Amino acid sequence: MSRLLSGQVALVTGAAAGIGRATALAFAREGLKVVVSDIDPAGGEGTVAQIRAAGGEARFIRCDVTREAEVRALIEGTQAAHGRLDYAFNNAGIDIEKSKLADAQESEFDAIMGVNVKGVWLCMKYEIPLMLAQGGGAIVNTASVAGLGAAPKMGIYSASKHAVIGLTKSAAVEYAKKNVRINAVCPAVIDTDMYRRAIEAEPRKAEYAKAVHPIGRVGKVEEIAAAVIYLCSDTAGFTTGIALPVDGGATAV
Ligand SMILES: NC(=O)c1ccc[n+]([C@@H]2O[C@H](COP(=O)([O-])OP(=O)(O)OC[C@H]3O[C@@H](n4cnc5c(N)ncnc54)[C@H](O)[C@@H]3O)[C@@H](O)[C@H]2O)c1
Questions:
Q1: 157 catalytic residue (yes or no)
Q2: Crossing angle for the helix pair 119-134 and 68-82, nearest 10 degrees?
Q3: Measuring from atom 40 of ligand 1, which residue has the nearest CA?
Q4: A single Gene Ontology molecular function, please (predicted)?
Q5: What percent of the chain is modeled with pLDDT above 90?
């Protein structure tokens, strides 16, 4: 795999834990300066500490991706610190509903759409002008296999991830000639806090989670991070507007 250029700058949202933390660590291993962002300062500073302990460069900027002023400040803070933004991984997301559509609450709809859809849109809204001004960049948004098909008892989440793919494709086409590539990654079940919370709530889900993947296990955060690094790298220079499943074969059956 061609590597990213040392000294470039990457931003990761939802980087206090799980997939975001693993990807922030992977960017740092590639020699990039990493802006770690999240609503959770303790977790975010934990990610920064791990990067620094491994000899990398990182800083934490707190941001709630549902708030435009905070997203604007995040991108302005990135520019002030580093003067550029080469790669953005818009990954912050929540999955809170546990019921069929008719039983879900309006507050759940608003919360899920706020983080998963509005958050991704707001991040791109402020990242893209910075990338255009410097001559290019690459963005990866976190969708899900739930954005490619049905997700029973997670219908609002599924709709939010379909929307992430819609935003990704439209943005990719709008900026394709401007050297800004925009793709989505679609994880299946990955072993993170989000997954462990779901298993705690319903332990029988663990066996089901393994069984939905023909590979026979849930995914690792590092396997999503590797896909993000690939999509950002020049190896993927002809790839824009895709929703890449990283799913142990789940969408093949
Ligand atoms: N874990 C899985 O099985 C799985 C599968 C498919 C897709 N995903 C997606 O991957 C992404 C990361 O999930 P994860 O499994 O690492 O979850 P996680 O809960 O471990 O991490 C999510 C991070 O997002 C942060 N966050 C939540 N709301 C935020 C907000 N408003 N602003 C900024 N940050 C916020 C949290 O504080 C947390 O650090 C999410 O978009 C999720 O929907 C996860």
A1: yes
A2: 30
A3: 93
A4: oxidoreductase activity
A5: 89
- Distance (angstroms) between ligand 1 centre and the Cα of 16 equals 9
Residue 161 confidence (pLDDT):
98
Give me 163's structure tokens.
């929307």
Q: Which of 87, 126, 157, 175 is catalytic?
A: 157
**Ligand 1 cavity residues, CB under 6 Å:** 13-14, 16-20, 38-40, 43, 63-66, 91-95, 115, 119, 142, 144, 187, 189-190, 192-195
The domain limits of the chain are 9-190+221-246
pTM above 0.85, yes or no: yes
pLDDT value at 1 more than 60 = no
| Topology classification of domain 9-190+221-246 | Rossmann fold (3.40.50)
Protein residue whose Cα sits closest to atom 7 of ligand 1: 144
CA-CA distance, 23 to 28, in Å (whole number)? 8
Contact predicate 161/190, CB 8 Å: no
- pLDDT, one tens digit per residue, over 50-91 is 999 999 999 999 999 999 999 999 999 999 999 999 999 999
Asked if residue 2 has pLDDT above 70, the reply is no
- Residue closest by Cα to atom 41 of ligand 1: 93
State the distance from the centre of ligand 1 to the C-alpha of 109, rounded, in angstroms: 16
Q: Categorise residue 93: left if φ over 0, alpha if ψ from -120 to 50, beta otherwise.
A: beta
User: HEC profile for 122-158?
Assistant: HHHHHHHHHHHHHCCEEEEEECCHHHCCCCCCCHHHH
Instruction: Give the residue, by CA position, lying nearest to ligand 1 atom 30.
Output: 64
- Please report, rounded to a whole number, the percentage of residues in the chain having pLDDT higher than 70: 99
